[in-house]
Request: fold
Amino acid sequence: MDISHDLLTQEYIEVIRDLEKKNRVARIKDIASVRGVTCANVSVAMTNLARKELVVHEQYGHVVLTSAGRRLARNLEKRHLAIRRFMTDVLGLETELAESEACKLEHVMSPLAMQAISRFLLFVERCPKRDRENVVLFRMCGLFGDSAATCIKCAQAGNEEENPAEDEL
Reply:
């Protein structure tokens, strides 16, 4: 799931994909509305995306993702879903926060980090040796600030010593 395009390119590809899903077509004025920019700005961006062979756009026509553009959009969506799922299912974050964070991280996370998250999610989901209970227990561990932790040893340790992970924040 390597993403080798700049942030602006990625964001435009996502907007076009979303508009194609919603309206079957993406128009310059709709893209401008979603992005909060002028139609002239979108036209310049579409020229750049066309040069990269990610879209096809005839003057005054609809914008259509090419196969390379659709592939990029799919990769971005896979990255987004994996990050969001990791944040909700493993870390226990609220859906809204996980969604917001995934929108940011999907664009900047390295392929190696994405691979690690994806592999971990597959492990939790499919490995017969995994203990799904431990993922849930992680979120309830007293070392990570859950005052209702059922593990007294972790809760006491969390109160007695500083959490090294929090020092990095």
